[in-house]
Amino acid sequence: MTRSMKQSAAALVTAALVSTVTMMSAPAFASTSFANTTIASAAAATEVAGPTTLASGVWTKKSFRVSGDWSIYEKDGQTFIELSDDFKTKKAPDLKIFLSTKSVDAVNGRNATEGAILIAPLTSHKGGQVYLVPSTIDVSDYESILIHCEAYSKLWSAATL
Asked: Which strand (E) or helix (H) includes residue 20?
């Protein structure tokens, strides 16, 4: 056998082996790929869902201007009120967040707390903030969200839910 014949025979054997290995590996690779995809999908399905927005908007001036957005969302079975990072209003001694059964048009400083539920004192007059809504409160029972100075019965701002 000549040298070129040996090289040709070696090339044929190598090609045959590569072909056989490829054919044997392809189904195994495909099922591994499928298994990985299934596992990845199962992992994605068991991840905790992101927040679900229930309401959001901007503030309507009552006594003082409030800038920034607000949102109410659910996450991991809890409800939160979030004030955006650009939230800002005038400083006051007793600002609080309420949910009210009154509409934005009907609420004022004197009646702001009637039929309203206190969520929390405002932690700051500016910047992003998040407040936990007690689990006993159903947000859909309320018409508006308020920022109210309870000590002076001054309604700062309101928004429709």
From this structure: helix 3-46
HSE-up of 90 (CA within 13 Å, CB side)? Answer: 12
State phi, psi for 36 to the nearest 5 degrees: -65, -40
The sign of the dihedral angle between the CA atoms of 17, 20, 25, 26 is positive
Q: 3-state DSSP: the chain helix, strand, coil percent, rounded to 5?
A: 30, 35, 35
Neighbours of 157 (CB within 10 A): 22
- Burial degree of 55 (CB within 10 A; 0-12, 13-18, 19+): middle
Phi, psi of 47 (to 5 degrees): -65, 150
pLDDT of residue 86: 96
In angstroms, the CA 133 to CA 138 distance is 9
Q: What is the pTM of this model?
A: 0.69
pLDDT along the chain (161 residues), means of 10: 46 42 42 38 52 95 95 97 97 95 96 96 96 97 97 96 95
**Integer Cα distance of 77 and 75 in angstroms:** 5
